[in-house]
Amino acid sequence: MDFINHQLFIKDINVHIDPILPKKIAIITHAHADHARYGHDEVIATKQTIDIMKIRYGENCAKKYTILRYGQKHQIKGYQFTLYPAGHILGSAQVLIEHNNHRLVVTGDYKVGKDETCKNFKFIKCDTLITEATFGLPIYQHPEPKEEIKKLLNSVKKNKNKCHIVGAYALGKAQRVMNLLRQNDYNDTIYVHGSLEKICKYYKSQKINIGPFEKVSSKDKNFYLGKIIIAPPSALKDRWSRRFNNPIICMASGWMTIKQRAKQRGVELPLVISDHSDWNELLETIKKSRARNVLVTHGQEDALVYFCKKNNLSSKPLSIQGRNDEENE
Amino acid sequence: MNRFSSLLNSLILTPSRNSKIKLLKDYFDVLDINRAYALSILCNQLTFQFIKPSKLREVVYKKVDKNLFDFSYDYVGDLAETISLIWPKSSKYKSQSLSSLIEKIKKLKKNQISTEFSKILDQLSNNERWTLIKICTGGLRIGVSERIVKTALAEKFDKSLNEIEEIWHGLNFPYDNLFKWLKNEAKKPKIDFKNLFHPMMLAHPIDEEKDFANLNPLDFHAEYKWDGIRVQLMVSKSGISLYSRNGEDISNAFPDIIENVKGEAVIDGELLVGKNFKPSKFNDLQQRLNRKKPTADLIKKFPAFIRAYDILFYNGDDLRKLNLVRRKVYLKKFYSSFKNNKIDLSQIIKFSNWKELEKYKNNNLNHLNEGLMIKLKSSEYIPGRKKGFWYKWKKNPKYVDAILMYAQRGHGKRSSFYSDYTFGIWQNKELVPIGKAYSGYTDKDLLIIDKFIRNNTINKFGPVREVKREIILEIAFDDIFKSTRHKSGVAMRFPRIHRIRWDKSIKEVITLEEFKKEFKV
After folding, report:
1. Which helix (H) or strand (E) holds B424?
2. Nearest CA in chain B to A239
3. What angle do CA A7, A13, A14 make, to 5 degrees?
4. Do residues A163 and A229 lie in contact, with contact meaning Cβ atoms separated by under 8 Å?
């Protein structure tokens, strides 16, 4: 495992995983902005990750693209790379690196739970596991998303004279919320903030069931009564949300687990729907990987490192710059 | 339990007062045995002294790794929430009523808590656990005041809030007499009024333009408004108690008063400190209020007294239906009935027109009067803040121009705007903050400042934005004190934004030294 450093950089072959700054060769786990950046010479990723990067940053956001299918092997000198589904968002991948008979997995962001909007997580056996720890505390035990979305549907039913604005990250979470609504037979048009439109269209083109949607455009304050609107969390706090009459502010996020956090953010209807693993899923992943060495990246590293050590695994935190912000996707 | 914990969960997340009232009304739709428990919990009248946070930790450490719990508690910052979330999922869920659960806990013996409480937590859902722990440790902090609960009951059962307020302090768990009356199955509960705290009569701020035109000055008299705390003193043969404005018993903190009054009466007045009935600054009173039991030295240094405004009961008679002028006669009778150095009478100011009264308002009695109270001579003593009877007219504020330094988003209806401002003045060519304000501006000014902040942020500290030093705010404030808690060494009383000074440049803003000199701090 010495071949990769705390920045997820393999010096030997000049390859980075999810680098913050423009690099020669970048393997990108998924298209969220804190992992996928503009300006690399070569990007290696799944087709969907590359498609979304192009939508967000433009066709020329990298000089060269190398598409890898899940499970397809890619050799760079003595290193073999394979991408496996991470279950985080559409196109998200874990990276298996094999070198000198050592198997190392970088999970990227991942969740073990089921999700119709992307390929579901695959457990991989390895010697070294580099796992994320966004929700790396035992207080995070995510409920069933299908039950959470029912809270929204019940509230919509009960409050016909109000509109529901759901805060959800523009890429991934928004579409997952739409899909969950469809799974629960909600068939009305869902209204989306302008920044979501292109990504929603892309999800649709990938045959993800998000149903009919339209961009918010009506100037009539009452038009949206009884409707569901999805917007990025930043828009909830902004003047944008003032165009609606009688809104109920909702938020779909793992952070909503904690009531006081929801309250601080002015959220009236918190929906605990997360695209990251909760505590038990993190533990399950570590266990099933059979790794003897566990490195913990962005999030709440302390508790997870403590847990690993207690279970006789070698473990330490890796702090990767730029990924410590709670507000990140 | 589920129904009640859902109510609390909704209440904590609902910002608007009206929506909270609606939630409460919906809850009191069902008037089963749980209603009494709910009411006592919501109004903070139910406490379990023996379930301490340390005990709860003990319980949780037996279920969860101590270090993992401590990591989590550090992060969440709320004991009830941490325990409810970290508690291992169990298959023992049992639906149980609020009442049976509370009764079960009341019966727990001290040495049973560790084992039994753990079993109970196993039987609850996440949200129910949170609710139960909040109930046990006291202080729900869900943004619901006693008054909101009473308002909900009044609206729900078509009674007047006043009537509920009036009998409230004579009611006890399980409130059967209250609920029967609410449902019109019985008469209003009979309460022994003499020995109870009586909700106070409060005043509205006067609107100089509208009110003065409509009110006849001859119908009113005035009194000085003092900067202490409003209290109710209850003197009777069976005991003497002192209550704060919201009915909290503060007798123990003021033995110098309790031990030196006699007679039989309920008095409404202002609690002040000072020698020979000469009030000193609010800060001095604060020294006394901070102590549950004062030392002899503290009493000597800051002796307390009451400046009496009104009398509610005298020698067993309820005077509240009498008019103010007649009550003042009884107040004087009570006052003259024994010699003392603990109670004096609030002076009555007579006047024939509003202009004449204004002179009294700005009269500088060593800074210590906050302004005037204007009271309808014919007013009965009515609990709460009813319009048309009592008014307060505050002194003209003091002003200072200061520079906007930091801003934070507001709450409630201002939630999407940067509406909380920290402002400062010069000290050695640097700015030192002197206060924080989040009111006073017009809606139009708010929009302008909000836009300025968004476009001129130079730094972010969590939710706080530091802005370019450019906007001068004229700050109005009631008074100013020395303070050891603030970097500037001064603390303002009730600062608010008066207007934006577009005409001034930041160089013209005064220094801290000049500021202290001007206001004699």
Report:
1. strand B418-427
2. B416
3. 45
4. yes
Alpha carbons B34 and B99: distance in angstroms, whole number: 5
B76 in contact with A, Cβ within 8 Å: yes
Q: Do A139 and B9 touch (CB under 8 A)?
A: no
Q: Which of A141, A238, A269 sits opposite B89 (nearest CB)?
A: A141
| pLDDT at B453 > cutoff 80 | yes
Instruction: Tell me which CATH homologous superfamily contains domain B398-518.
Output: Nucleic acid-binding proteins (2.40.50.140)
> Other C-beta atoms within 10 Å of B479: how many?
19
Of A103-112, A179-188, B15-24, the poorest mean pLDDT is in B15-24
Report pTM: 0.71
Express each pLDDT in B127-171 by its tens digit. 999 999 999 887 787 888 888 999 999 999 999 998 898 888 888
Answer whether B42's CB lies under 8 Å from B149's CB: yes
Q: Taking the domains of chain B in order of start, what are their residue ranges?
A: 2-137, 204-394, 398-518
Is the model's pLDDT at A150 over the cut of 90? Answer: yes
Query: What is the CATH number for A115?
Result: 3.60.15.10
- Flag whether pLDDT at B412 surpasses 60: no
The residue among B10, B16, B72, B443 with the most chain A CBs within 10 A of its CB, best to mutate, is B72
Query: Is the pLDDT assigned to residue A299 strictly greater than 80?
Result: no
- A327 domain residue, yes or no: no
Give me the domain span that covers residue A208.
145-271
Chain position carrying tokens 């009044």: B154
**Residues of B with Cβ-Cβ distance to A270 under 8 angstroms:** 13
Question: Are residues A234 and A134 part of one domain?
Answer: no
Does residue A158 sit in the same domain as residue A240? yes
- Inform me whether the C-beta atom of residue A165 falls under 8 Å from chain B C-beta atoms: no
Beta carbons of A259 and B67 less than 8 Å apart: no
Reduced to 3 states (helix: H, G, I; strand: E, B; else coil), residue A43 is strand
Mean pLDDT (chain A) is 93
Domain B2-137, CATH: 1.10.3260.10
Do A213 and A153 share a structural domain? Answer: yes
* Contact across the interface for A138 and B86, Cβ inside 8 Å: yes
Whether residue A323 is contained in a domain is answered as no
Specify the number of domains making up chain A.
2
**CATH number for domain B204-394, candidates 3.30.470.30, 3.65.10.10, 3.30.1490.20, 3.40.190.10:** 3.30.470.30
Nearest to B415 among A258, A262, A266 (CB): A266
d(CA B105, CA B55): 14
Closest Cβ opposite residue B409 in set A237, A270, A307: A237
Who's near B230: CB < 8 A, 6+ residues apart?
Answer: B200, B244, B245, B268, B269, B270, B271
